[in-house]
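Curious: why this fold?
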Amino acid sequence: MKRKTNVIYKCFNKLAPVYLCNMFIPRALSFVLRQKLYLPKRFSYSDASLWENLPEDVRTAETLDIFKRSRNKCFSASDSHTTNM
């Protein structure tokens, strides 16, 4: 799943090939949907949810390396919350 968030990040930041970037289209709607992103068939609802549940500052990280580190911190923090229950 982490690999797919890397792809989404690269597409939104024009770091992926154009054909791949064109597959991701953010939805601009005035009401809240479960999924705010049109995804290619290779990506599941859980991939979109994973991306959308990342904090805004993680999704808009300046570089891919910063994105990966921040994302990993979010995942490890969420994992520790679920294991302590």
About this structure: DSSP finds five helices and two strands in the chain.
